[in-house]
Structure formats: structure tokens, C-alpha cells
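Work Package 4 report. The design task specified in the project plan requires that, given a folded chain encoded as C-alpha cells, an amino acid be chosen for each position. We show below one input record used in the internal validation round.
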């Protein structure tokens, strides 16, 4: 086990927790979306508009399969865990933490976001349906679920760090 993967729906706090966890555990942090943006030299909405969602999903898959073999924390895009091969790879190469936020918290955080094409092209009802659909995939991929409702970023980070140390000691 070399990696810590943060999975969950858009707006569940993966990047914010990833950065804090990196600081607390002293392990480098990478944001998968940002790595794809860097590689392509385009923003996420530009990639979706120019090449389509299927192409973007391939980029995510390739990132997972080829990213350097070192201790690191990776925050994944909200759609990554839907692909069974991605789930298998994450479970094999790391500890998978599912940030389980409520849809109402998520909606508050993301509904105005112009950088998330899926939010731009969906109604609230459609997003909620996607949230429910994906939840079973997050559950299938995860080693640990962290419920975020009513918890501060600090509390969530401390809990994630605790789980990491616990599993590391047992392995
Ligand atoms: C997506 C989530 C985004 C990004 C892209 C698609 C999704 O990442 O990968 O806009 O399908 O849920 P975040 O979960 O970091 O917002």
C-alpha cells in the first residue's frame, strides 16, 4: 500500500482534506483533475467541450494506472470510482477513503460552480440522481467511510490520519 485515495462526489471536500492530510502526514498531495489539466494544458470545461466526457474518463483511468509509484495522497474526480477497473486499481495500490457528504451540503457548495461541466449541464434533480447512483460505487471502492456532516475540516482530517496510522500499524 503506497497511496491514499480520497473518493466521493463533487464538493465532498476531497481536495480540502487532501491538502490538510498531506500537511499532517507529511506525504505529498496530488489533485487528479489538476494533473490532467496540467498535462492537457486545458481547463476541465475545455477538455469536456473539446474532446467529450469519454475522453476525460480515459485520461482519469490513464492517470491512475501510470502515476508515479511513491507514497502520496491523491484526490480523485467524482466520477473515478464508477469504473470497476479504477476501483480495483485503487484498492490494490492504496487506502481508499470515501468522504460521505449529504447531498444538501454538496449542493450548497457546488451549484454555482462554472468549473464543473456536469454541474453546468444538470438540474438539481439530475445531480441528486447521479449522487445516489454513484454512492454504491463509492461504497464498493472504499476501505473506510468518513461521514462529513457536522464535522469540521480539522476533525475529518484527524479522523482520516487516525485511520491511516491504524491500518499502517496493522499491515
Ligand atoms: C466530475 C468531478 C470533477 C471533475 C469533473 C467531473 C464528476 O472533480 O473530475 O468535473 O464527474 O463528478 P471533483 O469531484 O473534484 O469536483
Amino acid at each position: 500500500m503506497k497511496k491514499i485515495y480520497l473518493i466521493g462526489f463533487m464538493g465532498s471536500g476531497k481536495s480540502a482534506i487532501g491538502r490538510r492530510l498531506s500537511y499532517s502526514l507529511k506525504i505529498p498531495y496530488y489533485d487528479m483533475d489538476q494533473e490532467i489539466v496540467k498535462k492537457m494544458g486545458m481547463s476541465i470545461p475545455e477538455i469536456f467541450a473539446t474532446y467529450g466526457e469519454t475522453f476525460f474518463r480515459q485520461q482519469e483511468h490513464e492517470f491512475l494506472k501510470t502515476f508515479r509509484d511513491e507514497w502520496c495522497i491523491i484526490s480523485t474526480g467524482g466520477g473515478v470510482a464508477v469504473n470497476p477497473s479504477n476501483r480495483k486499481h485503487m484498492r490494490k495500490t492504496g487506502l481508499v477513503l470515501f468522504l460521505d457528504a449529504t447531498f444538501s451540503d454538496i449542493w450548497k457548495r457546488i451549484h454555482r460552480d462554472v468549473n464543473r461541466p456536469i454541474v453546468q449541464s444538470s438540474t438539481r434533480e439530475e445531480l441528486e440522481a447521479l449522487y445516489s447512483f454513484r454512492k454504491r460505487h463509492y461504497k464498493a471502492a472504499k476501505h473506510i467511510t468518513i461521514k462529513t456532516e457536522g464535522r469540521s475540516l480539522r476533525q475529518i482530517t484527524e479522523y482520516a490520519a487516525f485511520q491511516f496510522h491504524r491500518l499502517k500499524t496493522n499491515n
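Residues 5 and 135 are 16 Å apart (CA to CA). Validation will be extended to a larger panel in the next phase.
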